[in-house]
Each structure stands twice: as C-alpha cells, then as structure tokens.
C-alpha cells in the first residue's frame, strides 16, 4: 500500500469523484479520523473529506491529555468515567508512542486536613470504578512530601497533595496516525477539500466537494454521510435541508506556553482558579503549558484568538498557586486557542455542559456527531458505525480497532537504524513517529539534512520533506503547526524559520515566489492571533513584512 503522499491526495480526489462509498465522512479531526478507521477496519468502503488540514480544528488545540475521567466523577457521570478509563487503556495499547505518562498533582489547602481525606475517598472510588491497574493508583502526599515534589508551590495553608497518573499525547499526531491507519485499512482520505453542498437522499447521497488548490468542484457519492465537522457541525447540517440534530454551544479554551526554567514544575499541577475551575500545568520537554479557559464563543471559527482577558485569567491562577514566580506576558513563548463543540444544554454555563457525545440520524441518512472528547474518540467512532450499519443493511463485527495499532504504534517493529541520523534526532523521531521513525530516516539524503533549521529549533530539512512527501502536508502551517508543533510551543521561533520552511515546502510542491510569500504572510497572521494580545513588537510582524526575504 503506497504511503500518505501528495500523489495519494491527487489519486484520492480522483477516487472520490469516481467511486460510490458506503460512508463519506465530513471532517478530518479526531472524530472523523476515528470513524474512517473504524469503518475501514469493519470492511466498509469509506471516504473522508477535510476542508483545511487534518486536525486543523479543535483536534490540534486541546489540552492534549488522555483522561481517565476523574472530573466526570465529581459530576456524577459514572458511565463516562468507565468509558474514559477503558479508552485510556485502549489508547495506551494501540498508540504507545502517543501516550506518555503525566503525573497529576492535586494540592490541598485549608485549615484542617479534611480536604485531603475527601480527596483520598474520591480517588479510591475512582481507582475502583475505573479499574485502575495496581501500578497506576493514586498516592497521598504529606505537606512535606508535597513541597519536596513541587518546591515552588505556595506553602501557605498547604495540607498535602494527591498524585495520580494520566497520559499526555500529541493531539494532531493522534489524528494523523489514526488517519494513516485508516488509509492502510483502505479508507480514501483527502485534506484541503471542503464539502460545500449536500444533496440526494436515502442510499444516494451526493456531496459537492471543492478542492482548495484548484478551486475545482466535483460530486462524491455515498450511501451514508457522517457529519464530524466539530465546531462546524451546525454549518454542515444546514447544507442538508432535512437534518435536525444537536445545536452547538461553542466554548473557547486557551493555553499559554512558558519555558521550563521560567515555570519549573515537575508535575501536571492542578490549580484552582478564582471561580474554582481546575487549571493545569503540563510539563513537555523544554516547555510547560498552562490551560485552560472555558468561555462561550460566537466569533469566527477558523482562527480563534487568544485575548488579554483570557491570558489574565491564566496569570491570575498561576499567581495563586506559585506566588514567587511573577510570570508576565514577556515569559510567554507560545499559545493556542481551541473551540469545544459542545451540545447545547438550556440554562447551563460552559463548565456545566456535559462532555458526552450525541449522535443524531436524519431521515436523509445524515449522521451527525457532536460533543465528546479526544480520549473517547474510538468508542464514539464505534457508535457512529453502529448507527450507520442498519442504514446500509449490513452487519460487521466490532473489535479490531481496540487492538490494531495506529500508524507508528507497533513499537515491537521499531526500524530506526543508526546510519546517518544523529542519536539526538533519532530519539526525537522515535518520540514523534513511534515505529514509523525509520520511514523519516530513509528520506534524508545527507547529514546536512538533519541540521536544525535555526538555533534551538528542533526541526530539520529532512523532517520538513518527510511531512510533505509522506504526511500530505500541503501548506506552511500544515508543517509548522501540525506535523511539527513548533507554531504552538515556540510561536516566534516558528515565525523566524517560516521563510526557510516555505522555501523547502515550495521546492517539493513547485510553488511560485508569490505563493511562498503568501504562505509566510498567512502563517504570520495566524501566529499574530495567538501572541498579538501581548501588545509588543514581535518577530511575527517582522516576518509578515519580510516574506521569504527574511
Ligand atoms: C481547549 C480545549 C481543551 C481540550 N482538552 C482535551 C483533553 O485534554 N482531552 C480530551 O480528551 N479532549 C479535550 N478536548 C476536547 C477535544 O479536543 C475535542 O472533543 C475534539 O478535538 C473534537 O474533535 P472533532 O473532530 O469533533 O472536531 P475538529 O477537530 O474541529 O474537526 C472537525 C473538522 O471538520 C472540518 N470541516 C468543517 N467543515 C467542513 C466541511 N464543510 N467540509 C470538510 N471538512 C469540514 C474542519 O476543518 C475540522 O478540521 C479539548 C477541547 C478544547 C477546545
């Protein structure tokens, strides 16, 4: 089976125009990717169309945690706890390279130790309900041990802490590796192609699809259409006159990134904001990110901006937990904002709305799925396929998706050979690509291809070429934001290397000088939406002015 290449995209566009599919999925975030993989593994013919890039919506802008569902226990949603805990184990099995253990530390403050006792009871119940393995159960720390574990934590009235493990992932990569697995199972997937019309009914659905690069429109045919468009679910539903379904309540969540030396935490510390919402620090290599907010959102969906007010909420919470750190906007090196596609619940505030997914089937055979979590995407996909099977008059046993590894997930078959690749880069490639790291190594022509594109930038020409040749990256942002995560974690550095990366991508894809400049300018605008709130002159603006001459 050929890889996930530019020629694959062209071929798949042709196949989408020529063939009739059992299932056509609209949206290439984690929800759509999961449905495509599940359907293909069950032997259905399936196509997937993504308007921009895979994971370019919410699925690259989450907190990147694979939760066991402790939070749902507080809300009394026991079924959700069990499902999240089970799926956390499944993901560890099928994507070990994308589920690093992250130790959560919950400090308890108060005049007495009653809070520690309460937390112990809650976590014991969670360990039981979630059938947590012996090695992953919670521990309770005394005040002294808590301060030894996190020395910069505010000590005033600290009574103790609880520590328990969750997993941290790379959300965009989870989408890509799910889609690659779907592709290997026979799914026909394309990015940068938008569904702009939805016609037909019953077993004869017709989707008008527009290719973003040629602007050409064609008709794709399917017996069942799955609307997995995340924040755009209502917009896609409106293309289909007969489709009732969930109405979304969008809420925005932002994250800010600091250098680890500026925010020296060893754990995912659970902090309480002034309004009692829990926020986290998440250490990730040389960075620590902090999130998140949860506020109703009604603006443009494509590039939600981080505002000074969003940032202030995070700074205020950080100051309450780490009062001697004195963090300011000048310490922020990266940021992102995402939109939760929650199902509207009358009278409920953003934080009270359930994270449960909801599936609606229209008389015209449009299956709409909204809500849900990254963590439970595989189970959501099973439910969608189970809803599709009666419409297709088919049966197909479930089960393979919980054991078949995602792309890169077969660590027993790790194929990185020493060769040309420096050891430090081999380690990075293994962490990012898992068992597919050997595929990246095979593409480098010489040692110079592995040199970092700039000081402190963990990205080389070889990796950029791999993103284009083997991971269907078609734009500068596809490379800098989702194949690599530089745009999120080191936004200004990403801007500084943008012209170089644009030249590399352009050489692969045959871009003109104008196209290169336009890509750099568009990328700089996206970065500005993340860091513009700081109100300082940044390289982001300079790069936009310089274009490829920088
Ligand atoms: C701030 C924040 C933090 C979060 N943290 C976590 C966490 O730690 N753990 C967790 O489990 N979950 C978390 N979540 C939830 C999780 O990220 C989302 O539930 C999930 O990513 C939603 O994925 P999706 O595929 O439904 O939507 P999206 O990822 O938005 O995908 C929808 C896709 O559909 C495409 N599309 C739209 N219209 C069309 C069209 N007409 N034609 C073709 N394609 C179209 C879009 O371009 C988009 O790529 C978080 C969410 C947010 C916002």
Could you explain how this protein is built, in words?
It is a single chain. This protein has 550 residues and is an alpha+beta fold. It has 3 domains: 6-59 and 172-247 and 353-402, FAD/NAD(P)-binding domain (3-Layer(bba) Sandwich), CATH 3.50.50; 95-168 and 249-343, D-Amino Acid Oxidase, Chain A, domain 2; 443-549, Helicase, Ruva Protein, domain 3. The protein has 18 helices and 18 strands. The strands form 2 sheets. Strands 3, 4, 5, 6, 11, 12, 13, 14, 15 and 16 form a 10-stranded mixed sheet that branches. Strands 1, 2, 7, 8, 9, 10, 17 and 18 form an 8-stranded mixed sheet that branches. A hairpin with a 5-residue loop joins β12 and β13. The protein starts with 5 loop residues before the first helix and ends with a helix. The mean pLDDT is 91. It binds flavin-adenine dinucleotide (FAD). Flavin-adenine dinucleotide (FAD) binds next to α2, β8 and β16.
């Amino acid at each position: 089976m050929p890889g996930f290449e530019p020629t694959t995209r062209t071929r798949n566009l042709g196949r989408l125009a020529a063939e009739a599919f059992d299932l056509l999925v609209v949206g290439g975030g984690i929800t759509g990717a999961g449905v495509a993989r599940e359907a293909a593994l069950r032997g259905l013919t399936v196509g997937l169309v993504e308007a921009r890039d895979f994971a370019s919506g919410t699925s690259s802008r989450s907190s990147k945690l694979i939760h066991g569902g402790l939070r749902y226990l507080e809300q009394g949603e026991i079924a959700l706890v069990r499902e999240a805990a089970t799926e956390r184990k499944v993901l560890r099995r099928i994507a070990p390279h994308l589920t690093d253990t992250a130790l959560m530390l919950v400090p308890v403050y108060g005049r007495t130790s009653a809070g520690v006792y309460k937390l112990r009871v809650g976590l014991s119940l969670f360990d039981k309900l979630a059938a947590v393995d012996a090695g992953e159960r919670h521990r309770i720390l005394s005040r002294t041990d808590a301060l030894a574990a996190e020395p910069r934590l505010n000590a005033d009235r600290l009574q103790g802490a609880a520590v328990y493990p969750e997993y941290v992932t790379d959300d965009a990569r989870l989408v890509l590796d799910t889609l690659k697995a779907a592709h290997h199972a026979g799914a026909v997937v394309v990015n940068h192609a938008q569904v702009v019309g939805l016609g037909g009914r019953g077993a004869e659905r017709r989707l008008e699809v527009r290719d973003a690069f040629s602007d050409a429109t064609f008709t794709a045919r399917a017996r069942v259409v799955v609307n997995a468009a995340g924040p755009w679910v209502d917009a896609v539903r409106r293309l289909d006159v007969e489709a009732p379904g969930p109405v979304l309540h969008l809420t925005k969540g932002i994250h800010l990134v600091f250098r680890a030396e500026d925010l020296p935490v060893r754990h995912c510390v659970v902090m309480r904001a002034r309004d009692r919402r829990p926020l986290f620090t998440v250490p990730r290599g040389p960075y620590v990110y902090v999130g998140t907010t949860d506020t109703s959102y009604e603006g443009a969906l494509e590039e939600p901006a981080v505002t000074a007010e969003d940032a202030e909420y995070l700074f205020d919470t950080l100051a309450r937990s780490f009062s001697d750190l004195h963090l300011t906007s000048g310490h922020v090196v990266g940021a992102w904002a995402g939109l939760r596609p929650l199902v509207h619940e009358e009278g409920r505030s953003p934080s009270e709305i359930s994270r449960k997914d909801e599936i609606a089937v229209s008389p015209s055979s449009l299956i709409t799925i909204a809500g849900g979590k990254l963590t439970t995407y595989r189970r959501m996909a099973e439910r969608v396929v189970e809803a599709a099977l009666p419409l297709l008059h088919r049966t197909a046993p479930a089960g393979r998706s919980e054991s078949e590894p995602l792309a890169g997930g077969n660590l027993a078959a790790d194929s990185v050979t020493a060769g040309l690749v420096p050891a430090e880069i081999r380690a990075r490639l293994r962490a990012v690509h898992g068992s597919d790291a050997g595929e990246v190594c095979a593409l480098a022509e010489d040692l110079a291809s592995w040199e970092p594109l700039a000081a402190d930038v963990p990205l080389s020409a070889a990796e950029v070429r791999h993103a284009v040749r083997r991971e269907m990256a078609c734009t500068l942002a596809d490379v800098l934001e989702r194949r690599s995560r530089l745009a999120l974690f080191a936004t200004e550095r990403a801007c500084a290397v943008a012209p170089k990366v644009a030249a590399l991508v352009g050489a692969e894809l045959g871009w003109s000088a104008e196209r290169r400049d336009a890509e750099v300018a568009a990328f700089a605008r996206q970065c500005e939406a993340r860091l513009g709130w700081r109100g300082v002159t940044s390289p982001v603006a300079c790069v936009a002015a310089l274009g490829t001459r920088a």
